[in-house]
Design a protein that fits this description.
This protein has 3 helices and 2 strands. It is 37% helix and 10% strand. The longest helix has 14 residues. It has a two-stranded antiparallel sheet with strand order 1-2. The chain has one domain.
């Protein structure tokens, strides 16, 4: 699927990686969904909406534990860590 490929390419981009790092730093080690500490797990950055994809603000994304992220995507078998 072309859209999926473009999305994956965006997630590998420097722009997304910078947004992701800044969003994780803003979260101060707390999951935005369950409000528990992220601990040693790799934080996931979830898009609340894809309307502003590639131009998202901090309000368009949230930092989650992997399990909280999987709950946001029940139809998906696996959610990658940098999503």
């Amino acid at each position: 699927m072309k859209e999926n490929r473009q999305y994956k390419e965006y997630l590998a981009s420097e722009d997304w990686q910078e947004h992701r790092q800044n969003k994780v730093a803003q979260a101060n080690g707390i999951c935005d969904q369950c409000h528990w500490p992220l601990g040693n797990s790799t934080p996931h950055v979830h898009h609340k909406s894809y309307a502003n994809l590639e131009h998202e603000s901090f309000e368009d994304t949230k930092v989650l534990h992997s399990i909280c992220h999987k709950r946001m995507h029940p139809h998906m078998k696996e959610v990658k860590e940098n999503d």
